[in-house]
Amino acid sequence: MSLQPTSHLREIARRIISRHVLAPRHRTWAFDGFNEATPSLAAWSAGVALGTWSTDPDLPDWASSLTYHLTTHTMSTVASHRYVVTASLDRDHAAVSVMALRGRITAQFAPAACPAVQRFSQKAGHIPLPAGPLAYAVITLPTPGPLPQPPSEPG
Questions:
Q1: Nearest to 98 by CA among 56, 121, 90, 119
Q2: What is the pLDDT of residue 90?
Q3: Quick check: helix, strand or coil at residue 120?
Q4: How far apart are the first and last CA of the chain?
Q5: Do 141 and 92 contact (CB within 8 A), yes or no?
Q6: pLDDT digit string (tens) for 25-60?
Q7: Which of 21, 70, 73, 104 is at 20 to 30 A from 97, Cα to Cα?
Q8: SS3 55
Q9: Distance CA 106, CA 112 (A)
Q10: 121 in helix, strand or coil?
Q11: What is the pLDDT averaged over residues 121-148?
């Protein structure tokens, strides 16, 4: 019985860790379409998930805000009984998507034109899928820093 040299075990451990760090991560949640708390629940879930996967200290805030506004926009423009929210992370980007399961578009569905979504993402859009309309938005990493202050109310 031969023992492997310590340097060989270190190399194996290094490869395992690098694969884990570089592997894209994603998580999906389903939320009720008739629950007023859905945007807040989706924002919290995506912020926690992306925050635990990333070393960027500002990503949880950016992801939570983006998810909240993307979910709110989708819920206000696409009627559905269920919204499926996905958060994903790769080396250079964090992305959030909201799909309205078997949804029916009731108003202008344009996440890229939504000012709040524009403020928190570098790219946004929508895709018609057989399962239902999907809105997506992408944050480039690293984030630009702490969240910008919300615009002040007139008056």
A1: 121
A2: 87
A3: helix
A4: 81
A5: yes
A6: 889 999 999 999 999 999 999 999 998 888 788 999
A7: 21
A8: coil
A9: 17
A10: coil
A11: 91
Please name the residues in contact with 65: beta carbons below 8 A apart, sequence gap of 6 or more.
Answer: 43, 116, 120, 147
- CA 115 to CA 107: how far, in whole Å? 16
Structure tokens at 122: 């570098």
Rounded (10°) angle between helices 59-77 and 38-53 = 150
Is the model more confident about 23 or about 130? 130
3 state DSSP class of 36: coil
Residues 126, 53: Cα–Cα separation, whole Å: 25
* DSSP H or E stretch at residue 63: helix 59-77
The answer to whether residues 107 and 74 touch, using CB atoms and an 8 Å cutoff, is no
For residues 93 and 36, what is the distance between their CA atoms, to the nearest angstrom?
29
Cα–Cα distance between 155 and 149 in angstroms, integer? 17
> By the 8 A CB rule, do 44 and 31 touch?
no
Query: Rounded to the nearest 5°, which phi and psi values hold at 24?
Result: -60, 145
